[in-house]
Amino acid sequence: MRPTAARLLNILVPVKRRVRLTIDYAVKIRVNPDQKGVDLNVKHSMNPFDEIAVEEAVRLREKLKDEVKSIKVVTIGPAKAAETLRTGLAMGADSAIHVETPESSPPPEPLGVAKALRALIERQKDGVDLVILGKQAIDDDAGQTGQMLAGLLDWPQATFASKLVVDPTKKEANITQEIDGGLQEVKCKLPLIVTTDLRLNEPRYASLPNIMKAKKKPIEKLSPSDLGIDLTPRLETIKITEPPKRQGGGKVESVDELIAKLKEAGVVGR
């Protein structure tokens, strides 16, 4: 029997190509000449934690089948960020939203992103039951957007999820969270914000047929003004420098020589 409309889940997955652009993890990061940021003329890819979020949404559909009505991915960034949305669509999302910003505009901060997501959620005709996003981005490591979004919407949140079980009938979810002392399990009512940890799943590679199908899936384009928000950063970057280069090590013949070298370097007291 097909579930009633009231039980169908609409899932939103924010994905990031940029807040200073998520540079591919295999690329060496270099500071740009004006020392205001990093060199962006390199390969970019979807933030790894957001890949996990997309994968989890697709796995929920595979498990719950007809109880998931839609999976929608959203990103904020310049025209090139559409490539990241196509990746999410190829992984299994149904449609996408691109909040397009000028190429030269400064990257939005977590609060600005959270406000944009709140505005997007509030304009969805069918509503949003579950937002799954990465716990952090690997460029700025801020780890703030999910928590800020939950606060703005006054929704429950479950961060650092390593397991997610959703019951559409009861409109609730059980989440296993990774904490300093190990694991803890929490139960939350939908609608809900979930941020993903590494051990939640291993994202799939998009197949060639799905990559081709993704080209035909709809991407809705909006601007920040369409959402009634201002993405102008509240913080100013004064200067960015590379860390000092590590000095080469040396060999010693005995413990006494090692201690003498450490004292000479001022690492241990004399």
Automatic annotation (TrEMBL):
UniProt KW Phosphoprotein keyword: no
Cited Pfam families: ETF
Cofactor note: Binds 1 FAD per dimer.
GO terms for biological process, alphabetical: amino acid catabolic process; fatty acid beta-oxidation using acyl-CoA dehydrogenase
GO cellular component, one term: mitochondrial matrix
UniProt-listed InterPro entries: ETF_a/b_N, ETF_b, ETF_beta_N, Rossmann-like_a/b/a_fold
SUPFAM superfamilies in UniProt: Adenine nucleotide alpha hydrolases-like
Compartments in which it is found: Mitochondrion matrix
Keywords: Electron transport, Mitochondrion, Transport
Cofactor: FAD; AMP
Domain named Electron transfer flavoprotein alpha/beta-subunit N-terminal: residues: 36-231
One MF term in the entry's GO annotations: electron transfer activity
Recorded family membership: Belongs to the ETF beta-subunit/FixA family.
Subunit structure: Heterodimer of an alpha and a beta subunit.
Protein task: The electron transfer flavoprotein serves as a specific electron acceptor for several dehydrogenases, including five acyl-CoA dehydrogenases, glutaryl-CoA and sarcosine dehydrogenase. It transfers the electrons to the main mitochondrial respiratory chain via ETF-ubiquinone oxidoreductase (ETF dehydrogenase).
Protein name: Probable electron transfer flavoprotein subunit beta
Organism: Phanerochaete carnosa (strain HHB-10118-sp) (White-rot fungus)
Classification lineage: Eukaryota, Fungi, Dikarya, Basidiomycota, Agaricomycotina
